[in-house]
Amino acid sequence: SAVISQKPSRDICQRGTSLTIQCQVDSQVTMMFWYRQQPGQSLTLIATANQGSEATYESGFVIDKFPISRPNLTFSTLTVSNMSPEDSSIYLCSVGSRGASDTQYFGPGTRLTVL
Amino acid sequence: AQRVTQPEKLLSVFKGAPVELKCNYSYSGSPELFWYVQYSRQRLQLLLRHISRESIKGFTADLNKGETSFHLKKPFAQEEDSAMYYCALKGTSGSRLTFGEGTQLTVNP
């Protein structure tokens, strides 16, 4: 399985600011995803990060709030813009590859607290 | 639409007892089902997937299409099994995963 790292591991931010989370994989992967896990809740898919094109967002998530970049097959960023306390969550990057082992693997997550 | 339901948020058993974590799904096509586990202070990791039909750490799960269920079972629970367990579904239209709410399993000594 791929080795996935995320930066930062945690942060405390002020309302109205933005935070960019980085996801780095040690091998080229086809698919990269960003999930949110709000306190006490399950994981919700924010978007699929597409290499070389705009991300595909799930219902309820928009590019202006969660801009995503994916410049290559090993790296992606998620920005949480104009933050409010409701954005306090764990943000997780996951990766997958097409083929016989089409399974998603998850990064360690970024714990974000917005004051 | 795809939906995964885990009816029990908390489940507590004694060491050596059988354990079953329930998962029901709603999907119109042929889904692929997974169980993920998150131990304390560790990242989410894949436990097993239905197409592999394997047993991992003594856990098994059988896809029952008639009952639209994918319950996770282990005949003799161990204390190290204490963790949060998530059932997840992947549909045929893409790679997106839909997760259930999770079940926190506690195995008491």
Q: Largest chain-chain contact?
A: A-B, 22 and 17 residues
Tally the beta strands of chain B: 11
Roughly what fraction of the amino acids of chain B lie in strands? 35-45%
The computed structural class of chain A is mainly beta
Helix fraction of chain B, binned, reads under 10%
Number of strands of chain A: 11
* End-to-end Cα distance of chain B: 41 Å
Q: DSSP helix count of chain B?
A: 0
Number of helices of chain A: 0
How large, in whole angstroms, is the Cα Rg of chain A? 13 Å
End-to-end distance of chain A, in Å?
36 Å
The overall pLDDT average of chain B reads: 92
Provide the low-confidence segments of chain B as ranges. none
How is the quaternary structure best described?
Answer: heterodimer
Could you please describe the fold and organization of this structure?
The complex is a heterodimer of chains A (115) and B (109). In chain A, the strands form 2 sheets. In chain A, strands 2, 4, 5, 6, 9, 10 and 11 form a 7-stranded mixed beta sheet that branches. Chain A contains no helices and 11 strands. With 115 residues, chain A is mainly beta. Chain B has 109 residues and is mainly β. In chain B, the strands form 3 sheets. In chain B, strands 2, 5, 6, 9, 10 and 11 form a 6-stranded mixed beta sheet that branches. Chain B has a 3-stranded antiparallel beta sheet with strand order 3-8-7, with no helix packed on it. Chain B starts with a strand and ends with a strand. The mean pLDDT of chain B is 92. Chain A binds chain B through residues 1, 31, 33, 41-45, 48, 58, 92, 94, 96, 98, 102-109, and chain B through 34, 36, 43-46, 49, 86, 94-102.
